[in-house]
Design goal:
two-stranded antiparallel sheet; 15 helices; binds zinc ion
Length: 342
């Protein structure tokens, strides 16, 4: 059996700064960042969207070689078949809790679909490791269900980074409409979302991320975007300890204003199309988010904002050790011990 590939999976809600974190983590010489891998088969290989290198998905050398390596490992797989498996196994139905319940059931009597999904997903990560020549992959898909599913793979050494950003910043980001522009990384026109919709999405994804991380408490950490941009050195030390990597050179580069190169993420925030990124905190929401939308955030998700250490007017210096009460974590830990690997 091939050696396990280490995957650093960024989990949480969209618009939380995961493209920035993906690029920063991928600046280590042993690491490759692939963006939102969850969308590779649909966006990159079916819709032929533009890779961050500027080429179309079907023309990018990196992703072409990844696809060849993937097909060699799982000759029975097809791109369309994998997308169909994703729809059945990864995507939310109802409150997403159905998938979690289904995963627990699969632990005891896995279906052919579930086994095919696991086999093909594992083969994808191994092909990326082989193609890139790197032993560690950063996947910023964020999707909590996919994060939970990766824990079932024996060939994956999974580390989870739950990236949290203030709900008010996410609401502000999702209020902006974007015109479709392939070259700048916006594949489809994006409609503005209401504060109600965005804060519900934020709370839902983050609660699922907390639950997913409870299954792997020793191989996961929570990190706030605000802490990362304010004190990158300390946060990279935390990340480095969990992932077994030394990020001191990256921290120095960020603190001295150097830019970090973006390689081949095929999907994700349009920031990936700029070729490189620098650490530039985004506090626009503080000046521009209307009072009414702030009130919606507190009304719908004030309890979760407080749990993550966000105050009405400021961010607490220290993030709480855990966003979930310790008694809940203990009960969940007992429950989770029986579910780790297929
Ligand atoms: Zn590319």
């Amino acid at each position: 059996m091939p050696e396990a590939v280490r995957v650093i999976y960024i989990i949480g809600a969209g618009r939380s700064g995961s493209t920035l974190l993906d690029t920063v983590l991928a600046s280590h010489p042993d690491v490759v960042g692939v963006g939102e891998l969850v969308n590779l088969h649909s966006a990159g290989w079916t819709s032929n969207e533009v890779c961050a290198c500027g080429k179309l998905g079907a023309e990018c050398d990196f992703w072409t070689r990844v696809r060849e390596g993937w097909q060699r490992r799982v000759p029975e797989a097809t791109v369309e078949g994998y997308v169909a498996l994703q729809k059945r196994i990864e995507l939310f139905s109802g409150l997403g809790l159905m998938q979690l319940a289904r995963m627990l059931r699969q632990r005891f009597s896995p279906t052919a679909d579930f086994q095919a999904y696991l086999r093909q997903t594992e083969a994808l990560y191994h092909s990326i490791a082989e193609t890139s020549g790197k032993s560690i992959i950063v996947d910023s898909s964020k999707h909590p269900i996919r994060g939970a599913l990766l824990a079932h793979l024996r060939g994956i050494d999974l580390r989870l980074v739950h990236l949290v950003r203030d709900a008010r910043a996410v609401v502000w980001s999702r209020k902006k409409a974007l015109e479709a522009d392939q070259k700048s990384g916006v594949q489809f026109a994006i409609k503005p979302r209401s504060a109600w919709h965005s804060v519900a999405f934020w709370a839902f994804m983050n609660v699922l991320a907390v639950i997913t991380c409870l299954f792997r408490r020793r191989q996961s950490l929570q990190m706030r975007y605000e802490d990362f941009v304010a004190e990158p050195q300390a946060q990279l030390e935390r990340l480095g300890r969990m992932c077994g990597l030394d990020y001191s050179a990256t921290a120095h580069a960020l603190l001295t204003g150097q830019s970090l190169k973006v390689e081949h993420p095929i999907a994700g925030n349009r920031m990936r199309m700029k070729g490189s990124v620098t650490l530039k905190p985004d506090w626009e929401w503080r000046d521009r988010l209307p009072v009414r939308d702030r009130a919606v955030c507190w009304l719908c998700a004030g309890w979760l904002l407080l749990a993550f250490g966000y105050g009405r007017n400021r961010v607490r210096k220290q993030m709480p050790a855990s966003a979930s009460p310790s008694w809940f974590a203990s009960i969940w830990g007992c429950f989770a011990r029986s579910t780790a690997k297929r």
